[in-house]
């Protein structure tokens, strides 16, 4: 479950009006993208940035996304979200 938190935070970034047509956002599971959209207001990062490192470091954002993913996503989506988060935020998750 600890791994889900970082992955959720990363997916939140993709839904935050970022260019989802650009890697790495296109590979985030839809459920995680939806959670990220919901959590974007908690983020210290600007929704207009494509700086994933900012979102990767944002513990509040990660927590919000993780909680959402754990409560709303299917287990398969959770696993995919974690794998995605590990790819885009290496060393964080």
General description of the model:
The chain has 93 residues and is mainly alpha-helical. The protein has one domain. It is 60% helix and 0% strand. The protein has helices at 4-15, 30-39, 52-57, 59-72, 75-88. The radius of gyration is 11 Å and the shape is globular. The termini are close together. GO terms for molecular function: metal ion binding. This is CFEM domain-containing protein. Heme binds at residue 51.
Which key terms come to mind for this protein?
single chain; mainly alpha; 5 helices; 60% helix; disulfide bond; lipoprotein; iron
Q: Count of DSSP E strands? A: 0
**What are the segments in which pLDDT stays under 50 over at least 5 consecutive residues?**
12-24
Gyration radius (Cα, Å) is 11 Å
> What is the makeup of the main sheet?
none
Which band does the percent of strand residues land in?
A: under 5%
Helicity level, as a percent range? Answer: 55-70%
Q: How many structural domains?
A: 1
Q: Which structural class should the secondary elements be placed in?
A: mainly alpha
Mean pLDDT: 75
Order of helices and strands: HHHHH
Termini separation (Å)?
Answer: 11 Å
Count of separate DSSP helical elements = 5
Shape: globular
Short structural description:
It is a lipid-anchor; GPI-anchor. The protein has 93 residues and is mainly alpha-helical.
Secondary structure elements and pairings:
Elements: H1 4-15, H2 30-39, H3 52-57, H4 59-72, H5 75-88
Signal peptide: 1-16
GO molecular function: metal ion binding
Disulfide bonds: 56-89
């Amino acid at each position: 479950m600890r791994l889900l938190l970082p992955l959720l935070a990363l997916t939140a970034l993709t839904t935050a009006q970022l260019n989802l047509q650009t890697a790495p956002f296109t590979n985030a599971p839809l459920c995680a993208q939806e959670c990220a959209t919901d959590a974007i207001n908690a983020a210290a990062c600007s929704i207009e940035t494509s700086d994933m490192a900012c979102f990767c470091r944002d513990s509040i954002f990660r927590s919000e996304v993780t909680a959402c993913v754990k409560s709303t996503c299917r287990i398969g989506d959770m696993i995919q979200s974690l794998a995605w988060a590990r790819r885009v935020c290496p060393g964080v998750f």
